[in-house]
Amino acid sequence: VSTQSTGSSGINAEYGLLDGKLNVKCVACEVFVETLQVLVSLNASSNEIVGLITKACIVLKIEDERVCSYITEEFRDEFITVILRLILHPTWLCYAAIGPSCGEPPDIFTFWNVTIPGNKRTPEPLVRPKDGVPTLKVVQLSDVHVDLEYTPGSITKCGEPLCCRDGKGVSEDQAGFWGSLNAPCDIPLRTYKNALEFISKEIQPDLIFWTGDIPAHNVWKQSRADQINHIQITADLISQYFPNIMVYPSLGNHESSPVDSFPPPGITTEHLSNSWLNHFVEKIWSRWLPPESLETIGYAGYYAVQYSERLRIISLNTQYCDNLNFWLYLDNKDLVIC
């Protein structure tokens, strides 16, 4: 299997151009990045570096001042450890900060070939099962993004990435009791509970795939304790509504703190390592999974189990390949060596 990236039309990141027009925001971002690289080369303090990043976030209007101040602190250790110690083109970092209008991500997957053992098998045509054969009813729970601070009646358009938490909205600008459509808001815990109750009574699945992204989108102000609390509460509710049903979980990019941060297992420094998350979900998931699967969960958040004679379930931690996982810049081949 050979992976290959494709470019986007109309973008000339080398000169900060978008469809032939000067993108002032991107050019300004590149100037900030080049200044940061100079600071690093001069052994500037982490406070000086974070201060400049915060100023860039505010000046470039990536987010408001409050969000910028929190998000730069959130990513302080990872950003300084991974990104600024490498020689990266400024457009790559501006792509991560602003988006594809500032260029394309680094082509980190070029020439990554994966050798699959054994002889190549000829695909067999799919045959529709005969009527009356045993079936499985599967429910997938994904991207629930439960907001434990959701407040009915609060402002739905607050100017930040996540609203429906603070202040008092007026007329159509008020957060609803069950949630708020067409607004940057996540769902309250009561809506998650209601969904589980409906599924347990009306759908009655044979098994559940729980595919991550549990915490809310307040990524600028999340701690490890926050993420653990979200996972614990939502897992306990699944157990409450489905006490006799097997659940097969996997991690989403929002489970980590900071978001998208999945360092390889070889990173063991306490404030950088992700072992806190892997070992916590190892404990939580053990209520559903067999003991032989727990070692790889604690190591890197993945596992394989035999559900039945003809069904094997493999849960991959694909967050190691998240293109916003900065640790890929240190090792773009395989962050987890089995």
Question: How are the elements arranged and paired?
Answer:
Layout: E1 2-3, E2 11-12, E3 17-18, E4 21-22, H1 24-41, H2 46-59, H3 65-74, H4 76-83, H5 90-98, E5 112-113, E6 138-141, H6 189-203, E7 207-210, H7 224-241, E8 246-249, H8 275-285, H9 294-300, E9 303-308, E10 311-315
Parallel strand pairs: 6-7, 7-8
Antiparallel strand pairs: 1-5, 2-3, 3-4, 9-10
Helix pairs in contact: 1-2, 1-5, 2-3, 6-7, 7-8, 8-9
Descriptive overview:
It is a single chain. The chain is α/β, with parallel strands linked by helices. The protein is 33% helix and 10% strand. It is built from 9 helices and 10 strands. The strands form 4 sheets. A 3-stranded antiparallel sheet has the order 2-3-4. A 3-stranded parallel sheet has the order 6-7-8, with no helix packed on it. A hairpin with a 4-residue loop joins strand 2 (11-12) and strand 3 (17-18). Helix 7 (224-241) packs parallel to helix 8. The longest helix is centred in the N-terminal third of the chain and has 18 residues, at 24-41. The protein is globular and about 70 Å long. Residues 1-21 have low confidence and may be disordered.
Estimate the mean pLDDT confidence. Answer: 84
The fraction of residues assigned to DSSP E strands is 5-15%
- The radius of gyration is 23 Å
Number-wise, the strands total 10
Helix-strand makeup class: alpha/beta
Order of strands across the widest beta sheet? 2-3-4
How much helix, percentage-wise, in residues? Answer: 25-40%
Please, how many helices? 9
The secondary-structure element order is EEEEHHHHHEEHEHEHHEE
Shape: globular
The major sheet is characterized as: 3 strands, antiparallel
Unreliable spans:
1-21
Distance between the termini: 18 Å
